[in-house]
Amino acid sequence: MKGWQEETRLARRAIMATFTLPGEHIPAQHVNLKLGPGLQQTSTSNGADVVVSTRAGTLQHSANGSRWWVESNSRRYVPAPQEFVVGVVTGRMGEGWRVDIGAAHNAGLDALAFEGASRRNRPNLKVGSLVYARVSLAHKDMEPELECFDAQTRKAEGFGELKGGFLARCSLKMSRNLLDPNYFLLPFLGSRFPLDAAVGMNGRVWLNAKDVKQTVATVRCIEAADPDGGGLDEIALKQFFNTLDV
């Protein structure tokens, strides 16, 4: 993983957290300041730039103060630049597709927003196809836009159409947990059977296991560990896994 999620995960152990409400001014200052979900920069009447919270939640920042964001367990996903999402194609849109990412509005995905894509060589997505993408544009007055390649390397890096497998849903908090390399669940399941997974920050998880029993077991474990569900910790989850027919 690269980009926004990688740096925020690596900084989790050195984070200062404070609860914030919409409209509050945030003391975010850095020469390379990057704002994540729940924050936006605006100008005051005297022309000064200030950072304002747009949602209620826990204000967090990286160890060096360059990246700031608000974590909340809201029900509806609010797109933010550089976040990873799992989307469902809902229709054509000019030279691209409209994609449902669980937000208030569908996102746009251009046919050229794939590694190596050209006007003669482009993906052939159908309605219902699943894609793993990165949010390239997110603005309150515009529909979000997606890309299926890494912003730095311009390579696919795991992004693109997701073929086969099963789409599971979880809370936004659970999806953030699954993206944390220190979180136990996916490494534990991967030690029990082969498992491919693509986790979106929008509360969607694509799973591809060897057979149906393994897929069902994975979904049930995610539901059991979800803070909005069972909320099981590592010990309880392993005991729960032993009761499953896998």
Automatic annotation (TrEMBL):
Gene Ontology biological process terms in this record: CUT catabolic process; exonucleolytic trimming to generate mature 3'-end of 5.8S rRNA from tricistronic rRNA transcript (SSU-rRNA, 5.8S rRNA, LSU-rRNA); nuclear polyadenylation-dependent rRNA catabolic process; poly(A)-dependent snoRNA 3'-end processing; TRAMP-dependent tRNA surveillance pathway; U4 snRNA 3'-end processing
Main location: cytoplasm
Keyword set, alphabetical order: Cytoplasm, Exosome, Nucleus, RNA-binding, rRNA processing
Record-level GO cellular component terms: cytoplasmic exosome (RNase complex); nuclear exosome (RNase complex); nucleolus
Occurrences of domain Exosome complex exonuclease Rrp40 N-terminal (ranges): 33-76
Residue span(s) of domain K Homology: 165-213
GO molecular function, a single term: RNA binding
Cited Pfam families: KH_6, Rrp40_N, RRP40_S1
Cellular location(s): Cytoplasm; Nucleus, Nucleolus
Family, similarity comment: Belongs to the RRP40 family.
The protein's name: Ribosomal RNA-processing protein 40
